[in-house]
Write the C-alpha cells for this entry.
Amino acid sequence: MASAKICCIGAGYVGGPTCSVIAKMCPHVTVTIVDINDKRIAAWNSDELPIYEPQLDDIVKSQRGKNLFFSTDIDKEINDADFIFISVNTPTKTYGVGKGMAADLKYVEACARRIAAVAKSDKIVIEKSTVPVKAAASIQRILSSNMNLDINFQVLSNPEFLAEGTAIQDLIHPDRVLIGGEDSEAGRAAIQKLVDVYANWVPREKIITMNTWSSELSKLAANAFLAQRISSINAMSAVCEATGADVNEVARAIGMDSRIGDKFLKASVGFGGSCFQKDVLNLVYLCECLNLPKVAQYWQQVIEINNYQRKRFASGIIGCLFNTVAGKRITIFGFAFKKDTGDTRESSSIYVAKYLLDEGAKLSICDPKVSRRQIVSDLSHPTIASEETVAELVTTETDPYKACKESHAIAVCTEWDAFKTLDYKRIFDCMLKPAFIFDGRGILDHAELTSIGFQVEAIGKTVSQGTVFTHNNGNNILSPTSRVLP
Ligand code: NAI
C-alpha cells in the first residue's frame, strides 16, 4: 500500500475528522476530502475549520498540504483514488414514502452516480455514511451501470462509530473497526486492502470483518442500543422523581453490575445529535418494511421516551415558575447537543426552547461554541417557532453572567464544563427572586446552589422541596387543564 490514494466525498463531521486521522496515521497515503459545498471546503483550507472538535485543528494543520487535501474538484479526485469513502449526510426523509422515518439516500446515490459516470479505473467504494441494510446493493447496481466493463468496483461497508466531542480519540483508539464486504475473491481482496489501511495504527484484533448486511445493520443496532440506554435511564428518572429515589444512586447501583456496565447511564434532558433519532427511526422503518411491527414498536418507544423527557423537563420549569412563564426571562445554558461540539442538530435545547417559547417565555441563550446565527436559524424552523417569535423573545449572550441578568430561572441543557465552575453567588445576586436552576444534565453542585439560595430542580432526584417539578407529566405541558394556580 505504498502510495494509496483515498478520496473522501463529504467534508462534514465524519468525513473531515475520519480522513484527517487516516492522513495523520498513514503518512504514505494521500487523502483528499471533497465536497459540493465550496464554503465548507474553503473553511477546511483556512485557519477557522468548519467544525469544532478537540485536537482536530492540530491534526489538520500538521497534515494539510502534505498528504491531506481539501478540494471541490470531485471528478478529478474520484478518478485519482484507489479508495473512495462516501461520507455524505443521510438525513431522515422529509417527503414521500417513508417521510419522517426512512433515511434519505439521495446524497449517497448522487455520489454513486458520480463515481459511475467518471471512474476510469478500479475502485473500492466504501460506505462510511450510516445507511439502511442493503444500501450497498443499490450502490453496486448503480456503479455497474458504468459502461466500461473492465472496471471492477467493490463496495464495502465501513460504518463510523466516532462520537462528536471525542471524535479524534475515538478514531485514534477505536473500540473496533468494522468492515463488511462481499464473500467472493474480489470482495475478500478489497476487504483486505482496507484492513491494511487501518492496520497502520489499529491493533489487528480490533479490526473485524463480516458480511456487508451484518456490517450495515451493526451500525443501526449500535446506535439503537445506545439511544435505548439513555431512554431507559431517563424513564427511570421519572420514577425516581415520583418516589424520592435518586437516579444517580440507582445508576451507580445498576452500573456496578458487570452485565450492565456503568457507561451511558446518565439521566438528562434527552439525547440529541444528528444520529440517534435518525438511525432509530431508520431501524423502525426497516422493521415495518420487513413486516415486523412488534419490533418496530419496541424501538419506536426509545424515541417516544426521549420526546417525553424533553417535554417533561420544560413542563417542570413551567410548573415550578408558578405555571406561567409568559414574559419571564429564562436563561438556557447550552445549545449544542452535547459538550465539546458546536453541533446543534436535534439538540434537546431546541425542543426545550420551543416549549418555553410556545408559552411566551423570553429566552436568553448562552453556549460557548454555538453562534447566534446558528441558534436563530435552528429556532426559526417552521416546526419550532416563527421568525417573529424568535426576533421578539430570543436573545443570545456569550457571557454567562450577562445571560443570567434579571432572569427568573436557568435551565442547563448542555453539560459544558464551563458551566460547572461559574461564580453562582454572583449569578444569584443578579437574578430575580426566587431564583431557580433546572439542572437538565446533573452537572452542578446542588447542595452549594441551595445554600446560596437557589431553588434547585434536577432530573431524577428531589433537591428543593415544595415545588411541582416532581410528579410532572410531560404529556400535559400544552394542555390548559395541567395548569395549577399558585
Ligand atoms: P454532514 O452533514 O456534517 O456532512 C456531509 C457532507 O456531505 C456535507 O458537507 C455535504 O455538503 C456533503 N455532500 C452531500 N452530498 C454530496 C455530494 N453528492 N458530493 C459531495 N459532497 C456531498 O454529515 P455528517 O455528520 O458528517 O454525517 C455523515 C454520515 O455519517 C451520515 O450518514 C451520518 O449518519 C454518519 N455518521 C455521523 C456521525 C456524527 O457524529 N456526525 C457519527 C457516525 C456516523
In short: Residues 212-243 form the longest helix (32 residues). The longest strand covers residues 5-9.
